[in-house]
Write a structure and sequence with these properties.
- The complex is a heterodimer of chains A (about 270) and B (about 270).
- With about 270 residues, chain A is α/β, with parallel strands linked by helices.
- Chain A is built from 7 helices and 10 strands.
- Chain A is about 30% helix and about 25% strand.
- In chain A, β8 and β9 form a beta hairpin.
- In chain A, α3 packs across α4, α4 (about 135-150) runs parallel beside α5 (about 165-185) and α6 packs across α7.
- Chain A is globular.
- With about 270 residues, chain B is mostly helical.
- Mean pLDDT of chain B is about 90; it is low at about 1-15.
- The chains are: A alpha/beta (about 270), B mainly alpha (about 270).
- The interface between A and B is medium-sized, with 22 and 22 residues.
Chain lengths: ~270, ~270
């Protein structure tokens, strides 16, 4: 697969139209436990948002609501009709060949061609007729990405999709996701607990804590993001927000860390 | 790539394996030999057990006369008819109970209740109800095979990975599409286990059912042979039953290899 980094720099600007996702006053309880607390979130069309949080912070609950897996009737949750999820475990149907997994649920006559095109995009055109059990973890996740993309989603939900991959594969997947995002321009919500991943990929990072947005960082650094000072700075402060002391650094231009109230900490 | 090559001699590994596999035939052949010798020397009287050579001769004459093929066909038809009914009923009940809560509430307690009654204990009742023709035999086999099919398919449906169902839903599959693409293929391995049990059970019940005043079939041959103390014919029939069991097992194996080609174990082989 050719490195996506070799391609001409894509246009990273946000489209100017209304938001792709709008969540207002969203509270979610399971029994006595309030998982999400009066949440307000907007994601712009084509915007790449990372949602950081520790286990149990409610980030998966939010993703499942946006994915329509846990519908929330009576709540203000607006999403595009075309949504697609990439789960942490690829969740391919083991009894369907790779291309049939990608074509799952597609309507129309040219499903095979569409699945092939999507698989070609993720560099797996040579594995069309393979059984999922023969794929490596990285390949399975690429199939999973193709299965999401073939639906042409307005909102792409990534639920810790790279957490189970080895470090090298993860970096390749980051490049792949960025190039696919650049080409198809869906709004992306990436749920992760990897701060580096969030800072490397997203336009905006939200930190979810106890069901509330505890911090928000806009990252205007050009991609691909090198391990430069600004990167380190945002990373350190997000980690601090998550309760990890990675050494405070001087705030840098291009990054704002703000509380939801609008107070700028940087 | 590294330039180190491992000095392997596959032949030295393969040899003892071949020897071992060949060794597995020794004891059965020895047994046959001892049996034959025992019969020839008169240690084993013919009315107790016929010599293997006599059994082979009888087998051949029964094949040539058409006695064995025609009776085998009758037995097979019984087993298959019973199995077909059992399969249809078992699959129907398992789908109803597996795919809906209401179905489970209605069907599962009855099936569990039925499980406590040994099927063969129903024989007298079936004779009273259906007489001594083909109906009680086929019914007995059908009733016996319903349970392994039902039990395995039901638990297979309920055991389908919930994460896959969730994923299917998130990609907009309808309920019918979920059943077709996710739930039924996911339950297939368990169903095939049930089918294997059902085939075994159908043969077992066949043997018993054929003792009910049968006028044809392998069981009828055995009954007649018993009356005339023809131990050679009895042994021929036992061998036929054993071959039926082997064939049933092979059938399911073939089905599994085709239907479950996606499984890692089949992919490797």
């Amino acid at each position: 697969m050719a490195s996506p980094l070799a391609r001409p720099a894509p246009d990273w600007r946000l489209p100017a139209a209304g938001p792709a996702v709008r969540v207002r006053n969203f509270t979610r309880r399971f029994g006595d436990v309030t998982v999400l607390h009066d949440l307000e979130i907007e994601i712009g069309r084509g915007e790449f948002v990372a949602l950081l949080g520790r286990s149990g912070s409610g980030k998966t609950t939010l993703l499942r609501t946006l994915a329509g897996i846990d519908p929330a009737p009576g709540h203000q949750v607006l999403t595009p009709a075309a949504r697609a999820v990439v789960f942490q475990d690829a969740r391919l149907l083991p009894w369907k060949k790779v291309w049939r997994n990608v074509a799952l649920g597609l309507k129309g006559a040219d499903t095979r061609a569409r699945a092939e095109a999507a698989l070609t995009e993720v560099g797996l055109d040579h594995r069309l007729d393979a059984w999922p059990a023969t794929l490596s973890g990285g390949e399975a996740q690429r199939v999973s990405l193709a299965r999401a993309l073939v639906r042409d989603p307005g909102l792409l939900l990534l639920d810790e999709p790279f957490a189970a991959l080895d470090a090298l594969t993860r970096l390749k997947m980051h490049d792949l996701v960025l190039s696919l995002w650049a080409r198809h321009a869906p709004a992306v919500l990436l749920v992760t607990h990897d701060v580096d991943e969030a800072v490397a990929l997203a336009d905006r990072v939200l930190v979810l804590e106890d069901g509330r947005i505890a911090a928000e960082a806009r990252i205007d650094l050009p991609r691909p993001r090198a391990n430069e000072a600004a990167f380190q700075d945002i990373r350190a402060r997000l980690l601090a927000k998550l309760g990890v002391d990675a050494g405070q650094r001087r705030p840098t231009e291009g990054a704002l860390l703000a509380f939801p109230s609008g107070e700028i900490v940087a | 790539m590294s330039s180190i090559t491992l000095d392997r001699k596959p032949s030295s590994f393969a040899l003892p394996k071949v020897r071992l596999r060949g060794g597995r035939w020794v004891s059965p052949l020895l047994l046959l030999l001892v049996w034959e010798l025992g019969s020839r020397t008169g240690v084993i009287p013919e009315r107790v057990l016929a010599a293997p050579s006599a059994v082979a001769v009888t087998f051949w004459s029964m094949v040539v006369s058409g006695e064995l093929p025609s009776n085998l066909a009758v037995s097979l038809a019984r087993a298959l008819a019973g199995l077909a009914f059992g399969l249809a009923i078992g699959v129907g009940l398992a789908l109803a109970a597996g795919l809906s809560r209401a179905g489970e509430t209605a069907i599962d307690p009855l099936m569990q209740l039925k499980r406590t009654i040994p099927v063969l204990a129903l024989t007298p009742l079936f004779i009273v109800w259906f007489g001594i023709g083909e109906t009680p035999k086929v019914t007995l086999i059908a009733v016996a095979t319903v349970f392994p099919i039902y039990m395995n398919l039901f638990s297979g449906i309920r055991g389908v990975d919930a994460r896959l169902i969730e994923a299917g839903r998130s990609f907009g599959l309808s309920q019918a599409e979920l059943i077709r693409h996710v739930i039924l293929p996911g339950a297939l391995p368990a169903f095939l286990v049930g089918l294997r049990y059902a085939l075994g059970v159908s043969l077992l019940v066949l043997v018993v059912a054929e003792q009910i005043n049968a006028s044809a079939g392998i069981g009828h041959l055995i009954n007649n042979a018993r009356d005339f103390m023809r131990t050679d014919v009895i042994v021929v029939c036992l061998v036929v039953y054993a071959c039926l069991g082997l064939a049933a097992d092979q059938l399911v194996r073939t089905l599994e290899a085709r239907a479950l080609a996606w499984r890692p174990t089949f992919i490797k082989s």
